[in-house]
């Protein structure tokens, strides 16, 4: 079993839709839960991260962690074509980032 | 230049060649990393340097040789690579060693023929 599982997609939604991106993880000792965005031909960039269970909001983005289910989500409201990218979840544990394989998101105009 | 830069952006090399990848960070960070990114696979951490000292080497084959001459520069020396080494090689930096907030360069797309 992989430590961090993420559906590779692609996930294709119309502009303006609410997008839900998800990851599951196996180790309950994991500490920080990160979301990175990677545009084509670019490196990943940190979007946001959270430490505890619950929600954290930043503009159109909301990160949600459910430690009891070992499930993390990223919601994007009012999605835009510029949100089209690969979204990587990563979990920080034992001084190392453990990565999901990424979900490719396509927002259709 | 700002952030993390990497050169070259693309590299094609034969299995008998020797080449080097270069990374430079302009953020004043203390730690630098090399990652390998293959299609549809999670990022693989290769090496970690903290204040120019290697602190992590995740069982990477010896055909990959890192060098960190100072806290702003990181190199990855390549020799006698295999076709399966073709991937995107990403450099990252963080303010503190093994920090969770890592800042990435654009990567070098390596193709081994």
Explain the overall architecture.
Helices cover 0% and strands 58% of the residues of chain A. With 109 residues, chain A is mainly beta. In chain A, strands 2, 4, 5, 9, 10 and 11 form a six-stranded mixed beta sheet that branches. In chain A, strands 1-3-8-7-6 form a five-stranded antiparallel beta sheet, with no helix packed on it. The mean pLDDT of chain A is 92. By secondary structure, chain B is mainly β. Chain B has no helices and eleven strands. In chain B, strand 4 and strand 5 (44-50) form a beta hairpin. The mean pLDDT of chain B is 92. The interface between A and B is medium-sized, with 23 and 19 residues.
Key terms:
A: mainly beta, 11 strands, 0% helix, globular, B: 113 residues, mainly beta, seven-stranded mixed sheet
Give the secondary structure arrangement, pairings included.
The complex is a heterodimer of chains A (109) and B (113).
Chain A: E1 4-6, E2 11-14, E3 19-25, E4 32-38, E5 45-50, E6 54-58, E7 61-66, E8 71-76, E9 85-93, E10 96-99, E11 103-108
Parallel strand pairs in A: 2-11
Antiparallel strand pairs in A: 1-3, 3-8, 4-5, 4-9, 6-7, 7-8, 9-10, 9-11
Chain B: E1 4-7, E2 10-13, E3 18-25, E4 31-37, E5 44-50, E6 53-57, E7 64-70, E8 73-79, E9 87-94, E10 103-104, E11 108-112
Parallel strand pairs in B: 2-11
Antiparallel strand pairs in B: 1-3, 3-8, 4-5, 4-9, 5-6, 7-8, 9-10, 9-11
């Amino acid at each position: 079993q992989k430590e961090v599982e993420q559906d590779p997609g692609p996930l294709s939604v119309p502009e303006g839709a609410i997008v839900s991106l998800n990851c599951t993880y196996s180790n309950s000792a994991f500490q920080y839960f990160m979301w990175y965005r990677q545009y084509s031909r670019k490196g990943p960039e940190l979007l946001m991260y959270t430490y505890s269970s619950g929600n954290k909001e930043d503009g159109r983005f909301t990160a949600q962690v459910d430690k009891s289910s070992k499930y993390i989500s990223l919601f994007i409201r009012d999605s835009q074509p510029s949100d089209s990218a690969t979204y990587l979840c990563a979990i920080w544990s034992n001084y190392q980032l453990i990565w999901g394989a990424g979900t490719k998101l396509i927002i259709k105009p | 230049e700002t952030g993390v830069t990497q050169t070259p952006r693309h590299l094609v090399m034969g299995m008998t060649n020797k080449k080097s990848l270069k990374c430079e960070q302009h953020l004043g960070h203390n730690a630098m990393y090399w990652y390998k990114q293959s299609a549809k696979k999670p990022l693989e951490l290769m090496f970690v340097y903290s204040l120019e000292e290697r602190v992590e080497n995740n069982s990477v084959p010896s055909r990959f040789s890192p060098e960190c001459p100072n806290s702003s520069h990181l190199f990855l020396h390549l020799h006698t690579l295999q076709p399966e080494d073709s991937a995107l090689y990403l450099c990252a930096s963080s303010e503190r060693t093994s920090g969770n907030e890592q800042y990435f360069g654009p990567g070098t797309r390596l193709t081994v023929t």
